[in-house]
Amino acid sequence: MLDEYYVNADTLLIVPINKNKTKIYDINGTYIVKKNAFDIVDVSCQYYGSSYYGRYVGAKKLLEMDYKLPIIVDEVKEIVIFPTCSPKLAKCCWICVNNIDNYEKSKKYSKIRFVNKTIYELQISFNSLENQIMRATMLVMRLKRRKNQ
């Protein structure tokens, strides 16, 4: 069990277990962290020079939206994660768009195949997942465009 984890280029998925524990799916394996999922996201943003709120405001400005926004965790490596539901909810998972290989509809929800061939089924509708992936991809594109101007 880890005390600390920072979202990085190898992060696949952040899944809350309970109020004070989170399971991290990483290209290199899985980890249990003694923090809630939102705190891991916020501390990761701070590690790379901002905060969740700062990243939220930036994403809101770039996308002109304000609900279930993707977050640029690391601007240099363009690591972007997005929530499966409102980040205020304890059940909110975070997905790293950079490591999605494919996704598809399952019987009730959605399956994501990550770059390391791990498949994870999430309790999120296919349309919602596709919308979140689109938002995250749009955020990366707009970030790149601004960097190149």
The major pleated sheet works out as: 6 strands, antiparallel
Query: What separation lies between the terminal Cα atoms?
Result: 44 Å
How many distinct domains?
Answer: 1
Helix count equals 3
Give me the secondary-structure category.
alpha+beta
How are strands sequenced across the largest beta sheet?
3-2-1-6-5-4
* Mean pLDDT level: 95
Low-confidence runs (pLDDT<50, min 5 residues)?
A: none
**Helix content percent band:** 25-40%
Strand content: 25-35%
Oligomer: single chain
Radius of gyration, whole Å:
14 Å
User: What is the overall silhouette?
Assistant: globular
Order of helices and strands: EEEHHEEEEEEH
**Strand element count:** 9
Question: Could you describe the 3D structure shown?
Answer:
The N and C termini lie far apart (44 Å). The protein is 31% helix and 31% strand. The strands form two sheets. Strands 3-2-1-6-5-4 form a six-stranded antiparallel sheet, sandwiched between helices. A three-stranded antiparallel sheet has the order 7-8-9, covered by helices on one side. It contains three helices and nine strands. It has helices at 37-47, 52-63, 126-148, and strands at residues 11-18, 21-26, 29-33, 71-74, 79-83, 94-96, 100-105, 110-114, 119-122. The chain has one domain (11-148). The mean pLDDT is 95. With 149 residues, it is an alpha+beta fold.
